[in-house]
Amino acid sequence: MANQPLLAIDPLGRRLVLAYLAVAAAVFLLMMSVGLAMRLGQGAMLPLGADLFYQLMTMHAAALVGACAMAGAAIMWYFLSRYVRLTPAVLAVNLATFLIGAVMILGAVIIGKFGAGWTFLYPLPAKSGGQWEIGAAAVFMGGLLVIGTGFLLLHLDCARAILARYGSLARGLGWPLLFRGDDSDTPPPAVVASTMAAIANITAVASGAAVLGISIANLYFPEVTLDPLLAKNLIYFFGHTFVNVTIYMAVIAVYEILPLYTGRPWKPNRVFLAAWTASTVFVIVAYPHHLLMDFAMPHWVLMVAQVISFTSGIPVLIVTAFGALTIVHRSGIRWDVASGLLMLSMFGWAGGVIPAIVDAVIVVNKVMHNTMWVPGHFHFYLLLGMVSMAFAFMYFLNSEARSKDAGAPVDGGLDRLGLGAYLVGGLGFVFVFLYSGQASVPRRWAAHMPEWLDYDRLGALFAAFVVAGAAVFVLGFLGRLRGLWARA
Amino acid sequence: MDQSIAWQLSLTLVAALAAGFVFVIANARQRRDYAPVVHRAYRFRARLFWAIVVLGVPATVFTLSRIPYPAFAGVPANVQVVDAIGYQWWWELSTDRVQAGQPVEFRLTSGDVNHGFGIYDENLRLVAQAQAMPGYVNRLVHTFDRPGRYRLLCLEFCGVVHHDMVAEFEVTP
Ligand code: HEM
Ligand SMILES: [Cu+2]
Ligand SMILES: [Cu+2]
């Protein structure tokens, strides 16, 4: 890798990154509390009622996926802008579209009582059975469309900047070193990951926009129809990819911050680049594992999906998680909340991949699909993986700013207590989900049978710990925000 | 059966992963040169990779040989056919009585939105499922080993009464 001087991060960009994180942090805390309420509702300890439960479920998922995307984008932008020239105005536009879309989504759910799930599975938005009007469905899906458009612009700007600096997306993925052994201008991990995110999300958002556009048209012109199986493919391609890309953006924090803590470089080598090129393909073609119980799908597609889902775990486990362990092993690392959260995030991502792969085995899926096993594995890598990366980055920004002064300790006993609560609560929470999944408890049920209530209550207890830990992280970050803003 | 294998396998692998993390975290404070650490780690990683391949390939072949799609399983001549149509929020079944020990072919579709046809036994254990979607007929073939009252729980979110979309049928000896 040629040593290039780092670019300075644009001051406006810095502030926008802080704004992204502030929005994400607030949503994390608020919507995790909503998740706790849902778990209490399932445990019959909080009388939510089915309509409210499904509204909350829709809002929880849409808002948290959005918050993960915002946090991931903040991390990506912050580090990527040291290597290529990004446009702060595009970052600002995406913040604006996100806020507009978020207001639309919240309005559709809270005022319009929309509750078809964040996956808006066609044709459910048009067939509420009386719970919501089609206007609410249109506003909800319109909100997703607006948010998607903002991210499309952001990824396009990243792709443009990478093209300007490296000449092609293939070079952004480090193909000269990967295929020809030419190490003269190998991009750093942040560029490789951002290139992958751009390729995957531009395709995903295009697919999402298509199905959202037709679904909205269908609300008002029922003669505009869509094949339900095609709609399912488009929706899950969009949803699967968009959610996964939040992690692929956020993991840049691990690549950038662990080297600072350990004094060891994270240099892309051929294995690293092969893993990222493979992930670029896998993330796009793995989505049919959401359709394994759609027997009308071509069977070879589903069988390939099982194989791809298995192989797609290998880069995560063998390259990124293993790389993190290698860089930390006997490194003399200084443990604080940021580095602790980074380690937790690696464990959360790699650990969540395991039950995900197991569920993508078709014979297992037959008895696990749409049980609690599913929220079990994705909360594993989102809550413990992705969100831990976001919190780690928030602590890191603070210590980065502080290290310029006296080197005072940046986190205290309360923060460490928060980390403990988040770790214990998070593990307990996801394992209760997984355990109830193997006990056949269905997912997305507002009211549970008496046999299942104990799981729900135990899950709620652990969830309360998660919320407590998250409250420490979020309130701490929001409290320090003014100082960070002033220094930006 | 498949559930407990999946659970135990996942638990074991996550525990192994956790052990790796604990080991590294426990040894992280002392500082050594990076080069030998990397050297040993890469050697270990290569072994890990080959272990995954060597275990993964037969596991993949084995599990794929057991896939539940009727085109592969084959539908025998003595099959009992049940037509099931999902509606918001009930199941319309052509019969609510089938015989144990003989294969049943459920022909699943929907009159409105996507539903999930989840077959639960008397212990509330999921024994098989498939999606029921408008415009398509999904064929699910299952042989009931044990007689009894089985329940159908909806396994695809279909609106505000999704959790109450439950039906029953009898498997006779
Ligand atoms: C304290 C933390 C959290 C709690 C207590 C919680 C709780 C829940 C509950 C109870 C459900 C419904 C489960 C069911 O299907 O019956 C759910 C679904 C979901 N959650 Fe969370 N959650 C938390 C954190 C998160 C985070 C951090 C994310 C994303 C980054 C997330 C994303 C989702 C998604 C996408 C769904 C699926 C909704 C659907 O099925 O349509 N959750 N959560
Ligand atoms: Cu249903
Ligand atoms: Cu349903």
Bound molecules: protoporphyrin IX containing FE, copper (II) ion
Sequence stretches where pLDDT stays below 50 over 5 or more residues of chain A? none
Distance between the termini of chain B: 22 Å
CATH class of the largest domain in chain B reads: Mainly Beta
The side-by-side strand order for the widest beta sheet of chain B comes to 3-9-8-5-6
Query: What is the radius of gyration of chain A?
Result: 22 Å
Name of the CATH homologous superfamily of the largest domain in chain B: Cupredoxins -  blue copper proteins
CATH 2nd-level architecture of the largest domain in chain B: Sandwich
Give, in order, the helices and strands of chain A.
HHHHHHHHHHHHHHHH
| Mean pLDDT across all amino acids of chain B | 93
**Can you count the beta strands of chain A?**
0
Strand composition percent of chain B: 25-35%
- The oligomeric state of the chains shown is heterodimer
Please give the count of helices of chain A.
16
Q: Which class do the helix and strand fractions of chain A yield? A: mainly alpha
Secondary structure elements and pairings:
The complex is a heterodimer of chains A (488) and B (173).
Chain A: H1 11-42, H2 50-80, H3 88-110, H4 134-166, H5 169-172, H6 175-180, H7 189-220, H8 228-250, H9 252-262, H10 270-285, H11 299-328, H12 337-359, H13 362-368, H14 373-402, H15 413-438, H16 453-487
Chain B: H1 2-26, H2 34-65, H3 70-73, E1 80-87, E2 90-93, E3 97-99, E4 103-110, E5 115-120, E6 126-132, E7 138-143, E8 148-154, E9 166-172
Parallel strand pairs in B: 1-4, 3-9
Antiparallel strand pairs in B: 1-2, 4-7, 5-6, 5-8, 8-9
The complex binds protoporphyrin IX containing FE and copper (II) ion (2 copies).
Brief write-up:
Chain A is mostly helical.
